Amino acid sequence: MTRPITAGVDGTEESLAALEWAGREAVRRTLPLRVVHAWRYAEALAGADRETQHRWATDGVAEAVRKLSERHPELAVTFDVVEGGAGEVLAGAAASAEMLVLGSRGHGPVVGFLLGSVGQQVITDTTRPVVLVRAGDRPAAEAAGRDVVVGQHGAPEDSAAALRFAFETAAARGAAVRAVRAWTLPPVFAYSPGSLALLDEAGGLEPYEKRALAEALQPWRERFPGVPVAEHVEMGSAGQVLLSESAGAQLVVVGRRAHRGAVGGRIGSVAHGVLHHADCPVAVVPHE
């Protein structure tokens, strides 16, 4: 079954930027595009009954889709106006999508608020990749010479989903992948005879980390031989290293493992930091 790329829209500038990004990506991947708007009847809106409000919402989405279709006549696009809360509607739409594309409001505390409500709920409730796009994103940002940057950590299987997404995206865009692995000195008590033997065999901590990144990338290099790959290993905080390497990127891809607690879902610190501070769209890809 062919999964569409799905874009969530609400009429804001950032959601329209997300719609444009999703449209371009759907054309590149030769996939259909589905546009979803979450709608709720507002009793406080005097003089407008349920049918009228629903028509207003539908007309607004239809107009945005019409403009997108004019720019991309080859694109197969449909739209739905679904009654319900934005988080629930968008997470439900993501379940059958190749990826879900949403708008993000920019840097600073507003982004934190967004991630603390609808954005965070959608990211933690779906098993599909979620791409967040800021207002002002333009096609020029996807020009040649801008890499797709992806974070890699742990064993090869820990980052397989994020690496797959990064290589697929780079292949569709004719771009290079820059794979980033950060490392820190472990506490002395974390050393064991087995780990020390591995480090001795690799020649030290940094060579060990470089070998780990190369091993994680090997199957994706073989699967996508036309995608240039740059490897970067650096000692430091994973989030800071990834953000530093993402300067000038056209997309940053991070993996995430959702954590659930008494107050709801939350995402990992690396994904959270990148979403706050990256200057380009960010794809959050759940671990398989």
From TrEMBL:
InterPro entries associated with the record: Rossmann-like_a/b/a_fold, Universal_stress_UspA, UspA
Entries under Pfam families matching the protein: Usp
UniProt domain UspA: residue ranges: 1-134, 155-286
Lineage: superkingdom: Bacteria
Family affiliation: Belongs to the universal stress protein A family.
Protein name from the UniProt record: Universal stress protein
Organism in which the protein naturally occurs: Streptomyces pluripotens
